[in-house]
Amino acid sequence: MECIFCRIAAGTATARIVFESPRVLAFEDLHPQAPVHVLVVPREHIDSLWELVDAQLAGELLLAAAEVARRKGLARGFRVLTNARRDGGQEVEHLHLHIVGGKRLGRMLPG
Q: Which tens digit of pLDDT belongs to each residue from 41-98?
């Protein structure tokens, strides 16, 4: 199994788990970009958001993101983002949502 996120989901690679359900796993990012930085991934391998076709799984990922934010005490605010494919800045080819917070985040887009 080459994919690090698949190995984490299978329990053959270690990670600091924050949330888990039958189809979704959330764990601390090894290179955090904010005081709180958690990755939410489907347990099954899906390359990116581009390939996601399961509406129920999409909902489960978002609900897991909200639960992670609650568990991490991010009531003041947080950001959920995903990078899709190489030109979108995706570094690991396994769909994952970044949950970042714990500090005031600046605007991402002008306006």
A: 999 999 999 999 999 999 999 999 999 999 999 999 999 999 999 999 999 999 999 9
Given a contact cutoff of 8 angstroms between Cβ atoms, the answer to whether 26 and 39 are in contact is yes
Residue 96: active-site member = yes
Amino acid in the structure at residue 16? R
Asked whether 80 and 68 are in contact (CB, 8 A), the reply is no
Q: Is the pTM of this model over 0.70?
A: yes
Residue of 37, 94, 96, 98 with catalytic role: 96
Task: Give Dmax over CA atoms of the chain in angstroms.
Answer: 44
Domains of the chain: 4-101 (3.30.428.10)
